[in-house]
């Protein structure tokens, strides 16, 4: 699964921005089929209700959510100070992974010609990390700063963490990677840890970090065209207002093509406004897009919250639900859910999102 907005076909995200702006100009009463003004109160239909007869808790980052027991959970990008990737059953192949990384850097070493040999003294080197079997490989991306790639074998699995470093902070960044390696342990799929830290794919990273990111996707066996995803990101010293839906609407408003009889005028604006999900206050937009030449009609539901500055609990949050998806392409097939069912599913899922209880938060 790819969680990046830039990975969607251009018509999906770019047109969605103009879509939201267009809604500002339209009179909703002229084309609404449904108006749901009370989130979490939509009744589950006979087709949706059986999904939630058996559920399972899923943890990601510092959060957790209840999903149907039959659902497949796909972990997306995660940061434990630096981006970290999980590869199942590859611990025995760590030597091959390290050798491949070194070979890549060796092939690119010609680009070092004329650069400071002092700055790049570690280029191509491999050293042991802080935990048994861990290897650190030094290279560069763009040959401005060094890149340090950490390979961490855990049981039969392998984690790879990629951390860039300014030349004068190599020791500091090696320390950051070693800290992550020492705090990392494997985690059973159904384990919900009670200690402070981050749930990542296959494992758990104890402690707290300056940069924390977690994302998951939910795939429903009963409705395979429905894609549900969540991304949580700890803010730094400032917020990014451009990620808020209302800000996107405001920015796109003046350049939006609109008018009677256009594709935009046929949009079903099911629900839009401020909403609170758990402790997050943010913006919600639920729309049913009409068909166009390259896509069928489809649902696109979004919730975004900017969160707070330097807050591990009140993170920046982005939730999305799409119908009519096939092969990660939106609008590829007809949606399996009608408007009421899509909204009921959305409300049921987001209503279970919460901070994972820990020994610290329980006190």
Describe this structure in words.
This protein has 2 domains: 229 residues, Mog1/PsbP, alpha/beta/alpha sandwich (Protein Transport Mog1p, Chain A, 3-Layer(aba) Sandwich), CATH 3.40.1000; 102 residues, no CATH class. Helix 1 packs across helix 4. The chain is of the alpha+beta class. The strands form 3 sheets. Strands 3, 4, 5, 6, 7, 8, 9, 13, 14, 15, 16, 17 and 18 form a 13-stranded antiparallel beta sheet that branches. Strands 1-2-19 form a 3-stranded antiparallel beta sheet, with no helix packed on it. Strands 10-12-11 form a 3-stranded antiparallel beta sheet. It holds the Pfam family Tli4_C. This is Tle cognate immunity protein 4 C-terminal domain-containing protein.
What CATH architecture of the largest domain would you give?
3-Layer(aba) Sandwich
Give helix and strand order, one letter per element, not per position.
HEEEEEHEEEEHEEEEEHEEEEHEH
State the end-to-end distance.
37 Å
Oligomer: single chain
InterPro entries: Tli4_C
Domain Tle cognate immunity protein 4 C-terminal: 191-358
Pfam family, one: Tli4_C
Protein name: Tle cognate immunity protein 4 C-terminal domain-containing protein
How do the helices and strands line up, and which of them pair or pack?
Elements: H1 10-23, E1 55-60, E2 63-68, E3 72-75, E4 78-80, E5 82-87, H2 94-107, E6 126-128, E7 135-141, E8 145-154, E9 157-165, H3 170-183, E10 184-186, E11 197-200, E12 203-206, E13 212-219, E14 227-233, H4 245-252, E15 268-277, E16 280-289, E17 298-305, E18 316-322, H5 339-350, E19 354-355, H6 359-362
Antiparallel strand pairs: 1-2, 2-19, 3-13, 4-5, 4-13, 5-9, 6-7, 7-8, 8-9, 10-12, 11-12, 13-14, 14-18, 15-16, 16-17, 17-18
């Amino acid at each position: 699964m790819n969680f990046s907005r830039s990975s969607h076909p251009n018509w999906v995200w770019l047109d969605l921005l103009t879509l939201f702006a267009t809604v500002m100009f339209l009179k909703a009463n002229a084309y609404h089929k449904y108006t749901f003004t009370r989130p979490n109160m939509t009744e589950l239909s006979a087709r949706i209700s059986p999904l939630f007869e058996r559920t399972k808790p899923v943890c990601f980052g510092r959060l957790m959510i209840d999903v149907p027991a039959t659902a497949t959970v796909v972990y997306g990008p995660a940061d434990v100070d630096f981006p970290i990737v999980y590869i199942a059953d590859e611990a025995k192949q760590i030597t091959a992974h390290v050798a491949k990384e070194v070979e890549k850097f060796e092939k690119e070493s010609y680009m070092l010609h004329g650069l400071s040999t002092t700055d790049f003294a570690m280029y191509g080197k491999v050293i042991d990390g802080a935990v048994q079997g861990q290897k650190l490989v030094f290279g560069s991306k763009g040959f401005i700063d060094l890149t340090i790639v950490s390979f961490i074998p855990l049981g039969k699995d392998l984690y790879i963490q990629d951390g860039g470093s300014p030349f004068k902070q190599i020791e500091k960044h090696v320390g950051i990677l070693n800290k992550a390696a020492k705090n990392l342990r494997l985690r059973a799929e159904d384990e919900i840890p009670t200690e402070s830290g981050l749930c990542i794919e296959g494992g758990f990273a104890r402690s707290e970090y300056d940069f924390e990111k977690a994302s998951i996707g939910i795939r429903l066996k009963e409705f395979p065209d429905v894609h549900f995803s969540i991304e949580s990101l700890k803010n730094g010293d400032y917020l990014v207002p451009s990620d808020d839906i209302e800000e996107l609407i405001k920015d796109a408003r003046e350049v939006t093509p609109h008018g009677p009889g256009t594709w935009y005028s046929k949009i079903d604006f099911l629900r839009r406004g401020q909403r609170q999900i758990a402790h997050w206050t943010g913006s919600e937009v639920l729309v049913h897009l009409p068909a166009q030449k390259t896509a069928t009609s489809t649902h696109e539901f979004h919730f975004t919250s900017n969160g707070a500055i330097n807050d591990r609990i009140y993170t920046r949050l982005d939730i999305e639900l799409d119908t009519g998806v096939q092969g990660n392409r939106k609008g590829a097939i007809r949606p399996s859910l009608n408007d009421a069912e899509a909204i009921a599913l959305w409300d049921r899922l987001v209503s279970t999102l919460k901070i994972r209880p820990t020994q610290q938060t329980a006190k």
